[in-house]
Design a protein that fits this description.
Blueprint: E1 2-4, E2 7-10, E3 13-14, H1 15-22, E4 26-30, H2 31-44, E5 50-55, H3 62-71, E6 74-77, H4 80-88, E7 96-98, H5 105-112, E8 117-120, H6 123-133, E9 139-144, E10 166-167, H7 171-180, E11 185-189, H8 199-213, E12 221-223, H9 241-259, E13 264-267, H10 271-274, E14 278-289, E15 294-298, H11 307-310, E16 317-319, E17 327-333, E18 341-349, E19 356-359, E20 380-385, E21 388-393, H12 398-402
Parallel strand pairs: 4-20, 5-6, 5-13, 6-7, 7-8, 8-9, 9-10, 9-11, 11-12, 12-13, 15-17
Antiparallel strand pairs: 1-2, 2-3, 4-14, 14-15, 14-19, 16-19, 17-18, 20-21
Helix pairs in contact: 2-3, 2-9, 6-7, 8-9
Length: 410
């Protein structure tokens, strides 16, 4: 994204032209930014044997999955539907790792029968899986390292009261289940949360999982999850991926020498790869001034862009119709029947009704968390790739809302 000749450009294409072509509201993605983030991460860990699995939950559009497959990434899936999307996008089953939570043994077995790698995060399922498959299908085990980390309580997943993973203090029980059922544990996994800034958090977690790994002699890989912080503001501090790569690679390589076998280091970033590559554009419906606030009411709401409301997330906003000129203070709100505020008291160049407002960092968990609340249709998605814009998901229409309704004779 660059501001040039009074226009915001994505790979040379004015954003205003894209939204005028495809309509508003609109999600726009920049493939070049996704690829550069992927390459930055692989370069940071180039001194060790590393595998990057894209976390599909961040943005599941098939075209996005294909971009990462073409770059050599694997896939992290958390539902059978994401597994099926990954297979449809061309991923080899063994390049997909399925990490569900609180799903049925039937769903897990259905995925296992597809040839996908299985990551188990509770004792009950581990026992049931072992009874069914024994040593015929290897498993990965998700541990809970009891580390409180993450930018918001809703995205902190490695603490003692988290529903995710098997407590490290239950390792003796895990071994007993594994040995009794003659299971093969091929990997260990942990994920402590999202928006983690401090490299020391990852290094502390590494010591815990590496210590636990000594209990399993047939490991092929150790999966450190993800959670890297990205920049939401111009002066934001982000996770120092280069420093982490240097320090963690050395520690991981030393561990491999210590145990006498070469393991693969795996990460599963989602937000890190796609957040900054995404933009969400909405049209200003109305300017409304109260006794204390000037509202800019947009043609969208929390049904399309819930992160500011759900996570108190900050998303930078700019008036792409008027990039320059004097600024005023606005509160950006949506058209939903409850308070859906995208940003309070934002300094933005003067907004008129009809102007387009663009939010940055809209690649991760924006369309993925969109809904039809208030019976509103979901927007289209557009991918800018190698200097061309491509429609990668059509805008929903009213018929899409009623497609699966069965009218009863009442």
């Amino acid at each position: 994204m660059e501001l040039k000749r009074n226009q915001y450009l994505i790979d040379g294409i004015p954003v205003t032209k894209i939204v005028e072509k495809y309509g508003s509201p609109l999600y726009i993605y920049d493939s070049a930014k996704m690829v550069s983030q992927y390459k930055r991460m692989t370069k940071a860990f180039s001194n060790t044997k590393v595998r990057i699995n894209y976390a599909a939950k961040a943005l599941t559009n098939l075209n996005i999955l294909k971009i990462f497959r073409q770059q050599g990434a694997g896939l992290d899936a958390v539902s059978i539907q994401e597994v099926r999307l990954g297979l449809k996008a061309g991923f080899d089953p063994q390049d997909i790792i399925y990490t569900p939570n609180c799903v049925s043994i039937e769903e897990i077995c259905e995925v296992a029968d597809m040839g996908v790698r299985i990551n188990i995060d509770n004792i009950s399922i581990l026992e049931q899986f072992g009874h069914r498959y024994g040593s015929s299908i290897p498993v990965c085990i998700r541990i809970n390292p009891h580390i409180l980390a993450g930018g918001n309580q809703k995205i902190s997943t490695g603490h003692i009261d988290s529903k995710f993973g098997i407590s490290i203090y239950q390792t003796p029980l895990v071994k007993r289940v594994v040995e009794t059922n003659n299971m093969r544990v091929e990997g260990l996994h942990m994920h402590t949360g999202s928006d983690i800034l401090d490299v020391e958090v990852f290094l502390r977690g590494a010591e815990i999982i590496l210590d636990t790994a000594k209990e399993f002699e047939e490991l092929d890989y150790i999966d450190f999850g993800s959670g890297f912080k990205v920049a939401y503001k111009a002066d934001d501090i982000e996770t120092d991926i280069e420093a982490l790569g240097q320090q963690l690679s050395k520690r991981f390589n030393d561990y491999c020498k210590e145990v006498g076998r070469e393991l693969t280091l795996i990460f599963e970033p989602g937000k890190y790869l796609v957040s900054e590559a995404g933009f969400f554009v909405a049209r200003t419906n109305v300017i409304k001034q109260t006794t204390s606030t000037v509202f800019a009411g947009l043609d969208t709401g929390m049904n399309h862009f819930i992160r500011p409301m759900f996570y108190d997330a900050y998303h930078d906003a700019v008036n792409i119709s008027r990039p320059n000129g004097k600024t005023r203070i606005y509160t950006l709100v949506g058209y939903i029947c409850e308070t859906d505020t995208f940003g309070w008291n934002r300094k933005i160049t003067e907004i008129s009704e009809g102007d387009y407002i663009m939010f940055r960092n809209a690649g991760a968990y924006c369309f993925a968390m969109a809904s039809n609340y208030n019976s509103r249709c979901r927007p289209a998605e557009v991918l800018v790739h190698e200097g061309r814009d491509h429609l990668i998901r059509k805008r929903e229409e009213f018929d899409d809302l009623t497609r699966n309704i069965v009218e009863a004779e009442i």
